[in-house]
Amino acid sequence: MDLWEMEMTSKVKALNHGAKKSTFADLLQPKSMDLSLLPIPAMRGDFPSIRIPEVGFLIGMERYKFNLIGRLDLMKVKLTIARTEAINKWNLTGNCQFIPLGKGYFTILLDNEADKLRIWGGGPWHIEGQLLPATMWTPNFDINKQKNTHAMVWVKFPGLGTKYWEEDVIMSMARTVGNPA
Questions:
Q1: Which distant-in-sequence residues (6+ apart) come within 8 Å of 8 by Cβ?
Q2: pLDDT in tens, 51-101
Q3: Residue limits of the DUF4283 domain (predicted)?
Q4: Three-point CA angle 132, 88, 153, nearest 5°
Q5: pTM exceeds 0.90
């Protein structure tokens, strides 16, 4: 069973509240697969060489082509709550699942281009008081290589006289602490 099947199973369980729920053991039951169709393991020098079946790789690339990557502080909000709130805000036409990747990152699995563009081009999206950044998915996305280069902050200028309440003046002041984009 791959991640897609596990996520779809959780979605079906969420929709069928009264139905008999599968156990974790049920989800891990082996599926019938002809092992003779898998590539034969090989060695390259002293190291095992892994050959990825091209068909499976292409199916995975096709499945994730409408994906986005999101990130939240999941210590402050549960992923299921974030997903419910986000789906309510996005008003999507197709299916949407959140698949956790670790370190607060998750895949936003979508099944059509229109929903992907609605999320990516819309916003900013706020979930439970947190900004939800949505970035384009890439095949080699690695949570361990991500660097936070931007942070949204709120800057106050207490006692600022009204004579300074012009956009260019305020943006000049904001620029001293960062990028006021």
A1: 97
A2: 888 888 898 888 889 999 999 888 888 988 999 999 999 999 999 999 999
A3: 62-144
A4: 25
A5: no
Q: Which distant-in-sequence residues (6+ apart) come within 8 Å of 19 by Cβ? A: 13
Give the number of other CB atoms < 10 A from CB of residue 37.
8
Tokens matching residue 69: 């990557």
What residues of the chain score a pLDDT lower than 70? Answer: 1-20, 148-152, 181
**Distance from the first to the final alpha carbon of the chain:** 44
Cis peptide before 124 (omega within 30 of 0): yes
Tokens of 58: 């292409």
Cβ-based neighbours of 75, under 8 Å, separated by 6 or more: none
- Residue 74 confidence (pLDDT): 80
Distance CA 20, CA 13 (A): 9
Say which amino acid occupies 169. Answer: V
Sign of the alpha-carbon torsion through 126, 135, 97, 89: positive
- The pLDDT assigned to 107 comes to 92
Helix (H, G, I), strand (E, B) or coil at 123: coil
pLDDT of residue 149: 61
Domains, the chain, in order of start with CATH, read: 67-140 (3.30.70)
Two structure tokens written together for 138: 């890439």
